[in-house]
Amino acid sequence: xxxxxxxxxxxxxxxxxxxxxxxxxxxxxxxxxxxxxxxxxxxxxxxxxxxxxxxxxxxxxxxxxxxxxxxxxxxxxxxxxxxxxxxxxxxxxxxxxxxxxxxxxxxxxxxxxxxxxxxxxxxxxxxxxxxxxxxxxxxxxxxxxxxxxxxxxxxxxxxxxxxxxxxxxxxxxxx
Length: 175
Prior knowledge:
Layout lengths: L1 E5 L6 E5 L4 E3 L6 E3 L4 E6 L2 H15 L3 H9 L5 H6 L2 H7 L4 H7 L12 H13 L5 H10 L4 H13 L3 E3 L5 E3 L1
């Protein structure tokens, strides 16, 4: 049986074999206890687990419409489309999703110090955007609560520390 789990440290999403006690996050290398981990999807079919992981990543990045189109267009297997849904998972755990929606959307505000989430947001921008420039990254980060100047500062720091580079064309790449 395969499970799609979320890392509580860096918010990454990965596929694990449910019979294992632990797995290691591919992004931050944190050990994840599968008994305690947030399970997003469970299936005996690895391909279904891959589809569910892709949908979870799309939803995490705010591409709910694309994830919905994927389900409606039959791009993912019918089983994944029927079984995958954030609201259903939350309701299974006793969360009143309608009350949460009525309470309003929660945003992550930028803080004075460079917190790991801000750096992670900037890195996600570089990973998920197609040939991102500094301005593209700043826009992506601003939409997620990181100030524009702070995003520029984080990109500069990533480049100086050798975690990223700028190409001649002005795009940023992670190394």
